[in-house]
Amino acid sequence: MKITAVDTFVLRHALDEPFGFSQWWYDARTAMLVRITADDGTTGWGEAYGPPEPSAAIVAHVLAPLVLGADPCDTLPLWERMYARTRDNGRGGMVLHALSAVDIALWDLKGQALGVSVSRLLGGRFRERVQAYATGLYFRPRDDFAAALADEARGYAAEGFRAIKLKVGLTPEADLRHVRAVREAVGPDIALMVDANHAYDAATAIRLGRAFEGLDVRWFEEPVIPEDLEAYAEVAHALDLPVAGGEAEFTRFGFRRLLAARAVDIVQPDLTATGGFTECQRIAVLAGAWGVRYLPHVWGSAVGLAASLQFVAALPPATAALRPLEPLFELDRTPNRFRDELVAEPLRPVDGWLAIPDRPGLGIAIDEAMLARYRADASVASNGRSRARSAR
Ligand code: CA
Hints:
The chain is of the alpha/beta class. The chain folds into two domains: 3-115 and 368-388, Enolase-like, domain 1 (2-Layer Sandwich), CATH 3.30.390; 119-355, TIM Barrel. It has helices spanning 52-67, 75-86, 93-114, 118-121, 145-159, 172-186, 202-214, 229-238, 251-260, 271-274, 276-290, 302-313, 337-340, 368-374, 387-390, and strands at residues 3-20, 25-38, 43-48, 129-135, 163-167, 191-195, 217-221, 243-245, 266-267, 293-294, 328-332, 353-355. Strands 4, 5, 6, 7, 8, 9, 10, 11 and 12 form a nine-stranded mixed sheet that branches. Strand 2 and strand 3 form a beta hairpin. Helix 1 packs across helix 3 (93-114), helix 7 (202-214) runs parallel beside helix 8 and helix 9 runs parallel beside helix 11. The two termini are 40 Å apart. The structure holds calcium ion (CA). Calcium ion (CA) is lined by residues 195, 197, 221-222, 247.
């Protein structure tokens, strides 16, 4: 087989209401998808994390010329070729977002060509379904925000979620008020996690983390900035509750530093950001060797979601026991049409569990009409909004 085309798709839809976290407010959802086509007409889809236009440009101008004409089943040699060619200008950030999308599309294509799911290509399936946790409870403009959070959390519990993550990183006082409100709303049996998106310094994170421990918070995600591994390690060492991080880290080289610094108890690589299936398999091996849990960061369209499900099917349990520690799967509950409407059979939880498709490749079928409707890299999207008006 030979790769004959690499196409990029920038998607955008405006949100009815903005939502925020400790760094900024979202007023639109975006996605950057890659479609790779082989000479026999087989296609594979991938997704890049982050701002869509830069990664689309990197795929089109830098990565596509490196893979066109190659055998799409050569996922490892092609990963190494793309990484080596961008090493001096990349090693992280949007270059790795773009590289991840191409890698995911190659694995999907390989699965389609061989007639097996990516999870089987990765070595086989440990599980047919995975317990999801609800990622929601973002900042929203509300008069009584604590009460709104409590309502939202009760909704997730009623849907069947047994684990919920809320955003912190506003102020320590507000964070505690919000965590308390959610804990009281859902009771003691729902696992509660918090995510500061690196809003704090080490001293504040430690003080706040101790208060979170009193509210039975199960992990403290991104307490401090990802650049400061010493601060991470200080927080992880000082607190009993697990510290999680890694969604802003790239490749096995970045995770090697994170693990060697004993900076986290849980790593959260994002398949669409840190290097795709090829690199995440290597990161999982590293994490296992360091005795650190691997719980994927997931924030994207149905493509990224389906890819992450395939990956987690093939992820070994974190402990060796009759009843080992199984992975928990991040499921974003904020509005995103590209998660809910882009595929023929949306990946929806049932009682807080997600079934993992065992169909060829990523196991999804893209709705091309939906793609056309929300495409933002055409001059005018057919939803009637001009590119400028629908842009964030
Ligand atoms: Ca996060």
